[in-house]
Amino acid sequence: MSWWMQLLACFAATVGYSALIKLPRSAVFITACVAVAGYGVFLLMDQSTVGYFLATLLIGIVCEICARIMKRAATLFVTGAIIPLVPGNGLYLTMRYLAEGDYQMAGNIGTETVMGLCGIALAMTVSAVLFNNFLPKGKKRKDATC
Asked: By three-state DSSP, how is residue 21 classified?
């Protein structure tokens, strides 16, 4: 499938998933555009583990910025935008090869899939830490006791 068809499918899938989880209409288009940008980075990085990391990092950072601008929670944007990156096919193939008894292929694909999931988790953590610790939403109170 050509890259532009994949990006169009990514946009449509994000809009559909956003409607399914009932995202506010004001967030759907932005979420889909962020998902397409992230998936584009993933395609440019040849769908590698580093591609998962960089695409998710881009999604996390842009969603944090959009959340600050629109005064909404970043989770609202990230939830829909991250869906196209989830390696569902790798999970399916791993289970299929396990059921067929081809443990070497299951191990190879399973390892790649887990590495992709770790890249996604690490990038989400990095983007959240960057924005929550270094760019706080508002001024912190001086008399805060926590």
From this structure: coil
